[in-house]
């Protein structure tokens, strides 16, 4: 099938769609990129969509494994976010990884595609991941410079303060919930100056918790999610090691039933 417009999504779990579960789709997730592609196709059926993102990928892996594969599809639109998994490591050279990122963004922009690049999220409210806030702030400043230098377009995830509400996050507290993916898809489409028919997420009422209940909840989260996450890092194992890209070639995304 030949597509006049071609959207290719690159990155890690954020772009793969982790947290937005849908067992009917590849890798069992949907995500904001699928939702953006669905709206593009609904507005113009000439759009094709590929998603090369795989959870757990570090920045150099995204660049080495996904950029050339994306360029081979002659994209007209690329979205990319990489570096979040690097920032969470005990040691990281922020200047070094963003210098490589800059070169990758430049390569994508040189193709003539419109390139949308995300800043990192402000995790300052998280008692665990908030410790990386300073790293992310530095990363973001360098990413903004790379975006400006290469003529890319910025999606400023850092400034989406409404996402600070925990109801926009999955139970693992690391990935967005379906509501978070919906909100992010609407933001991307806003940056693209496109219209969308995505419902504004309706959040369930947040139950009041006393200190004991919150501590019990935090302990359960640490056992079920934080511990296994740390264990994988120590063993050099990634949750995406045995996964393939969800949509490795251009296709029409599955459209929502309603």
TrEMBL record:
<feature type="domain" description="SGNH hydrolase-type esterase">
    <location>
        <begin position="9"/>
        <end position="181"/>
    </location>
</feature>
<dbReference type="GO" id="GO:0016787">
    <property type="term" value="F:hydrolase activity"/>
</dbReference>
<keyword id="KW-0378">Hydrolase</keyword>
<dbReference type="InterPro" id="IPR013830">
    <property type="entry name" value="SGNH_hydro"/>
</dbReference>
<protein>
    <submittedName>
        <fullName>SGNH/GDSL hydrolase family protein</fullName>
    </submittedName>
</protein>
<dbReference type="Pfam" id="PF13472">
    <property type="entry name" value="Lipase_GDSL_2"/>
</dbReference>
<dbReference type="InterPro" id="IPR036514">
    <property type="entry name" value="SGNH_hydro_sf"/>
</dbReference>
<dbReference type="InterPro" id="IPR053140">
    <property type="entry name" value="GDSL_Rv0518-like"/>
</dbReference>
């Amino acid at each position: 099938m030949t597509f006049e417009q071609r959207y290719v999504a690159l990155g890690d779990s954020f772009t793969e769609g982790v947290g937005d579960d849908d067992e009917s789709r590849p890798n069992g997730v949907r995500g904001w990129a699928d939702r953006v592609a669905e709206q593009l196709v609904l507005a113009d059926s000439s759009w094709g969509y590929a998603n090369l993102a795989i959870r757990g990928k570090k920045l150099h892996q995204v660049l080495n494994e996904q950029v050339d594969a994306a360029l081979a599809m002659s994209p007209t639109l690329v979205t990319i976010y990489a570096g979040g998994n690097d920032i969470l490591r005990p040691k990281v050279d922020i200047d070094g990884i963003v210098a490589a990122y800059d070169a990758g963004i430049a390569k994508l922009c040189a193709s003539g595609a419109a390139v949308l690049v995300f800043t990192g999220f402000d995790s300052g409210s998280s008692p665990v991941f908030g410790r990386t806030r300073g790293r992310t702030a530095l990363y973001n400043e360098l990413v903004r410079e790379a975006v400006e230098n290469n003529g890319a377009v910025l999606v400023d995830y850092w400034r989406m303060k409404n996402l600070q509400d925990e109801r926009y996050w999955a139970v693992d507290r690391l990935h967005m919930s379906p509501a978070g993916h919906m909100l992010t898809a609407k933001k991307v489409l806003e940056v693209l100056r496109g219209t969308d028919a995505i419902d504004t997420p309706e959040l369930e009422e947040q139950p009041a918790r006393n200190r004991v209940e919150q501590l019990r909840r935090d302990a359960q989260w640490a056992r079920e999610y934080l511990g296994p996450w740390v264990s994988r890092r120590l063993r050099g194992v990634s949750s995406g090691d045995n996964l393939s890209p969800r949509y490795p070639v251009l296709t029409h995304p599955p459209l929502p039933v309603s």
